[in-house]
Design goal:
heterodimer, A: alpha/beta, Aconitase, domain 3, 18 strands, 18% strand, B: alpha/beta, 7 strands, 30% helix
């Protein structure tokens, strides 16, 4: 009997010819990621009683969540991480300003097809866009990975999501994933491996596939997956930190569910407060006044996202009373956007450029919300209190919808600008 | 049988309302984390919770972030167990790794309300509420061993010591 993508990767890592759904295996991941939580992980690691990280080259550490430090306690946290990195000879360390971990790890060539990647961050699922098996773990687990390089994983059952047709601009991968999550719910793919396939996925850029895999966790999935192709190879051509072998599911693999979606009939979607699955077409909430618009993050802070926003904002102004925050996902993207004139356009329109990082997405750093304020954001979560006050509201949408809303000052269908 | 007073919550309780993101990158001991437990879900919880109390919730408890403090703060608040029809994968792992028992109870949670008493028999795999008994499946042995050792770190220390 054929195997799914998840079965194939986990069987290979466990040294088995086949593996059953539900089977628990102890394996060694290829790459492990942590970020500003590394200092806390290092303290837990110290409790194990092992002096040094077993395999320093397995670990990628990116400072991104509260960068640059806005308070002394964050500065202290970063300092402890730099000391830990130095002490353990961790070479794959990216200090403040390089970007958000989920963008930096692929840019530096660590997210490769067929790899097993674990990160102490729930959006580690992003690397499924490159055909890797990538899932989040907790801090204690990362501490144990420092010590032993090994962890137990259960083999998930799989969903296949077939997306037919073609997205019609400015409808994007973000609208598609919001629609999917709205359809099946916040636990609709709980503990599942989700394989995205179909002509809409094949037609997508790498950046758009990253959006789908980034948000797989928002329907409870363990991981997301897009089959690697020539676009994946092109992205990795000058980046891959080693050879790789793509892994594809067998044609006769067994799926718990096969779901089909039609991209061509899809319009812009919005997730309303306070859950990601509270999704409706944009016209249901059109006209809702906003105070802040956030363009960026690990979900939608890539060049294609900034580009579509700039196309809408070109020659226009952000509405009075609205703050447009622009948050490129990495330094590399920021440089490209500068060269292309995108940043010039966004700033001239009244956008406020923030440094690459997680910014206001999780309410721990700059750009947080006051009680009663409303934000429309390209990020991946809108939970109560997520971006600051528990009495603020966040709507999630595509870069085009966020840009259009920033111009009008109310939630707006971006098709009005095309 | 462990008995405790219930705090009842709904579906999709996420990690941001259990332990807000603004605290996640600040150095904090578990006792201080407990003061923020469920802060944006039920601001009265942290002050009123008593050791041995039990959280009963709806589906997909702990969805969202990988932040382990969501489990740590509940454990440090003295909660004896969390019972729900389903848990997010990350919260489930984190809870086991923090030594916080999590019980997947397929049916029976709907009838349980805040203030009720429930009993848990971990060995028999039974939750008792108002005389009604509902069973839950045992954890896989690999996972149970971690919980029985008090969490992942003590478990790994023990395994490393046993292996010399």
């Amino acid at each position: 009997m054929g195997m799914t993508f998840a079965q194939k990767v986990l069987a290979a890592k466990a040294g088995l010819d086949s593996i059953a759904v539900g089977q628990i295996v102890e394996i060694e991941p290829d790459v492990c990621l942590s970020h500003d939580n590394t200092a806390a992980i290092a303290k837990t690691f110290a409790k194990i009683g092992i002096s040094h990280v077993k395999d320093p080259d397995k670990f990628v550490i990116v400072l991104d969540h509260t960068v640059p430090a806005s308070e002394e306690k964050y500065a202290q946290n970063h300092k402890e991480i730099r000391e830990f990195v130095q002490l353990n000879g961790i070479r794959r360390f990216y200090d403040v300003g390089v970007g958000i971990c989920h963008q930096v790890l692929p840019e530096k060539g660590f997210a490769l097809p067929g790899r097993l990647i674990l990160g102490s961050d729930s959006h580690t699922t992003t690397y499924g866009a490159f055909g890797a098996f990538a899932a989040g773990v907790g801090r204690s687990e990362m501490a144990v990975l420092y010590a032993t390089s090994r962890i137990w994983l259960k083999t998930p059952s799989s969903f296949k999501m077939i997306v037919h047709g073609e997205l019609e601009e400015p409808v994007s991968a973000k609208d598609l994933i919001l629609h999917i999550i709205g359809s099946i719910g916040a636990d609709g793919a709980l503990y599942k491996s989700v394989e995205y396939t179909g002509e809409a996925i094949e037609a997508m850029s790498i950046g758009s596939r990253m959006v789908l895999c980034n948000m797989a966790i928002e329907m409870g999935a363990k991981n997301g997956y897009c089959a690697p192709d020539h676009k994946t190879q092109a992205f990795l051509a000058d980046r891959a930190d080693g050879p790789y072998t793509a892994v594809f599911p067998d044609d006769d693999a067994q799926y718990e569910r096969v779901l089909e979606f039609d991209a061509s009939s899809l319009g812009p979607q919005v997730a309303r407060p306070h859950t990601v699955d509270n999704v409706s077409p944009v016209d249901v909430v059109a006209g809702t006044p906003i105070h802040q618009a956030l363009l960026g993050t690990c979900t939608n802070g890539r060049l294609e996202d900034l580009r579509v926003a700039a196309a809408i904002l070109d020659g226009r102004k952000v509405a009075n009373g609205v703050r447009l925050l622009v948050l490129p996902a990495s330094q590399e993207i920021l440089l490209e956007a500068l060269e292309e004139g995108i940043i010039d356009t966004l700033v001239r329109a009244g956008g406020l450029l923030l440094n690459p990082g997680c910014g206001p997405c999780l309410g721990a750093h700059q750009g947080v919300l006051a009680p009663g304020e409303v934000c429309i954001s390209t990020a991946n979560r809108n939970f109560k209190g997520r971006m600051g006050s528990r009495d603020a509201e966040t709507y999630l949408a595509s870069p085009a919808t966020v840009a259009a809303s920033a111009v009008t000052g109310v939630i707006t269908d971006p098709r009005e600008f095309f | 049988m462990n008995k405790g007073k219930v705090w009842k919550y709904g579906d999709d309780v996420n990690t941001d309302v259990i332990f807000p993101g603004k605290y996640t990158y600040q150095p904090m001991e578990p006792a201080e984390m407990a003061q923020h437990a469920l802060e944006d879900l039920d601001p009265g919880f942290a002050k009123a919770v008593k050791p041995g109390d039990i959280i009963v919730a709806g589906r997909n408890f702990g969805c969202g972030s990988s932040r382990e403090q969501a489990a740590t703060c509940i454990k440090a608040a003295g909660v004896a167990a969390v019972i729900a029809p389903s848990f997010s994968r990350l919260f489930f792992r984190n809870a086991i790794n923090e030594g916080l028992p999590v019980i997947e109870l397929a049916s029976g949670t709907e009838a349980i309300q805040t203030g009720d008493q429930v009993g848990i028999d971990f060995v028999a795999g039974v939750v008792e509420h108002k005389g009604k008994r509902c069973s839950f499946p045992p954890l896989p042995p690999e996972v149970l061993a971690i919980l029985e050792d008090g969490g992942l770190i003590p478990h790994v220390k023990k395994v490393l010591a046993d292996n010399g």
